[in-house]
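Dear colleague,

Following up on Tuesday's group meeting, I ran the structure prediction for the four-component complex that the binding team flagged. I've pasted the input sequences exactly as they went in, so you can double-check that nothing got truncated or mislabelled along the way. The structure tokens for the whole assembly follow below. Feel free to forward this to whoever is handling the docking comparison.

Inputs:
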Amino acid sequence: MTVTLADVAARAQVSPATVSRVLNGNYPVASSTRERVLRAVDELDYVLNGPASSLAAATSDLVGILVNDIADPFFGIMAAAIQSEIGGPGGRAGGERLGVVCNTGGSPERELTYLTLLQRQRAAAVVLTGGAIEDTAHAGAVAAKLRKLHEAGTRVVLCGRPPAPEAPEAIALTFDNRGGGRQLTEHLIGLGHRRLGYIAGPEERTTTRHRLEGHRAALDAHGIEDDPRRTVHGRYDRRSGYEATLELLRRDPSLTAVVAANDTVALGACAALRDSGLRIPDDVSVAGFDDLPFSVDAVPALTTVRLPLTEAGARAGRIAMGREEPPPGGIAVVRGELMVRGSTGVPRT
Amino acid sequence: MTVTLADVAARAQVSPATVSRVLNGNYPVASSTRERVLRAVDELDYVLNGPASSLAAATSDLVGILVNDIADPFFGIMAAAIQSEIGGPGGRAGGERLGVVCNTGGSPERELTYLTLLQRQRAAAVVLTGGAIEDTAHAGAVAAKLRKLHEAGTRVVLCGRPPAPEAPEAIALTFDNRGGGRQLTEHLIGLGHRRLGYIAGPEERTTTRHRLEGHRAALDAHGIEDDPRRTVHGRYDRRSGYEATLELLRRDPSLTAVVAANDTVALGACAALRDSGLRIPDDVSVAGFDDLPFSVDAVPALTTVRLPLTEAGARAGRIAMGREEPPPGGIAVVRGELMVRGSTGVPRT
DNA sequence: AACGCGACAGCAAGCGCTTTCTAAACAAGA
DNA sequence: TCTTGTTTAGAAAGCGCTTGCTGTCGCGTT
């Protein structure tokens, strides 16, 4: 029925061991023999049995990529970059690896489930992307899993996620969300804004907290009181941005700027402002975060903080594959870059 | 070092066989025994060895999802929907499956490589999303792989991809790209447009061809000559839409409408028009395809054809898991819905 | 001429699990 | 009492591959 190594060996008149060595290519095999084996492989259309191979070798060629929301380009772009460094053709280094993207949907349980599944598959590496959930119990559980994975020989990399003190062996490429948030708000303050609304993401995420902290730091540095009523929490999606904006306007119709948790939310905010008859940026300025591809096409183009998602993802991928040295101390901070565009301007007086 | 089934068995004072049966839960085990085993599993923090299990059982819990471009929400949305039906309990007993997204980047070789990798892993199912590549050799190779996968017990589902006549065992959920394209262009013609530019996708994709055919059918049905100079091919991205639009304008500045291969391209087209000092839709109407989430937020909102990506993906996922009957004949056509919005209007006279 | 050694190839022992077949224990029908 | 059936547990044979160790052979050294 299915072709096995033994079949290939028989056909090539060699032992199974030799076939295995030809296929794995880390043991001297005479080129004439090798050729014979490869021909047999070809003729029989042989495909290695992955599970058997993984079992015997105690390693697999799976690399897991965990994302919060695969439908969100923020994660899609990182995932694509990571995968491009991991395998398929082109990633020659030491065999083909299967980079698999796992969608947690932002759910803690699913995150753990996937981690277990990956552990079960004896994954070669795992990359966790995006912000972490700030729940002590859950964070502890994740850290414990990461430690186990590491012990089992799985490389662990965090991309766009803060370091996990409880799992220090995980390499972390962290986005400077705090700094970016601060830059953004300072830009707005510099333009003359004093009444800024802030649409934050879900409460329990590190990304949310850090960006918000940056915003508040900027306010504080300029002696602007941070009225808690000017901050609204929501999900990281357009709808949430729309509703949050209406809420902010209800609370304070004199707002001159809205800072959104990310670009998607900012787009929703723009829609809400327009639907409320307000012009951007003449009446209200809007700023986003991430600089996703569509942001430059918004009308007006969105002022935002560009995060080098592709570069960071690629680097994370290389580190996961052991093809690049981890940063000293296992932690690197990746900075964003303020992109000033049409959606922010001098406030009306 | 690592905990094995035998360790658990020893601790629970039962045989490995019993532990296995408890874990797989498809064999009668006395509840007292079961409990003892589960406690041991818990105490030892045991995690099943996936490869070993797959080897012994000759099946794995991997489900592959192939996408052309994971950074594109079109695929991200489908992938999320598919995965949501795959993960978690629900399938077989013991049923956690690992839904893995593989990014081919639109490359034929990568597509085949991933298919081989999935075959190697003895995947439980494979879902291919998005348009196929129209290259006889490649199509044949893919079909052959699909047939092999099927023979090996892997369920194969196509989602948003035309049926593969050479691999009839693959269930196909096909988008009615031709019909959608036709509707869109007829809408424009109905508004009075006669000089329509068309920005098509890459030449060799079925999606590209079908949408274009629909467009031409509409022109033809209304006796409008199809000037080949009014069609430009490009990639499915924003940049391509931008450049193609400039090219179309150069060829015929009197265009009154631009139909884009998809929403992302349409966004680029809008940018190009605006940069050329043209108003939408007063000077030129623009239409997209897919109705991605950001399309409604474009200014003006994009007229487009909504494809039920989430529904189709979910259905494909269920079929892949064997939880839903395949459509009769193994083929189902999924229709799009014309969404008329602000980006199209009556042409200037 | 004897020896040593490098380069290859094969043997066989697992890797950790599933599953068939068998056995034990007990209840119930004859 | 003996047979038959039912339920639950164990023994053991692999699943297909990798790899440490053991040869074998030919050739350069001494």
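Chain B touches chain A through 64 residues (CB under 8 Å).

Cheers,
M.
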